[in-house]
Amino acid sequence: MNREILNARRLLCPLPVIRTQNKIKEMRPGAHLEVICTDPGVMQDIPAWCRIHGHTVLETHSGNHEYVILIEVGGQNG
To answer: What is the per-residue burial (b if ≥16 Cβ within 10 Å, else e) of 53-66?
Structure first.
């Protein structure tokens, strides 16, 4: 399975969402993207964006001032 990591540390809204969107456009459906951020707003913003665009949030967790979201790319890359 294809799994990539996106470092969105030290970026503030809306940049983590924009970078996530741009990365997912390059990926195949079924691939996994792990997004690592320091902006706590991503815990709401990225899952909402995923729901709208047909991607699945598989896991979220936070610790040590970082927020991690694991996404499965859906069929609508973007």
So the answer is: bebebeeeeeeeee
Condensed to tens digits (0 to 9), the pLDDT of residues 11-67 reads: 999 999 999 999 999 999 999 999 999 999 999 999 999 999 999 999 999 999 999
The residues assigned a catalytic role are 13
- 68: CATH: 3.30.110.40
For 49, the domain range is: 3-72
* Residue 77 within a domain: no
If one counts the domains in the chain, the total is 1
Which pTM value belongs to this model?
0.93
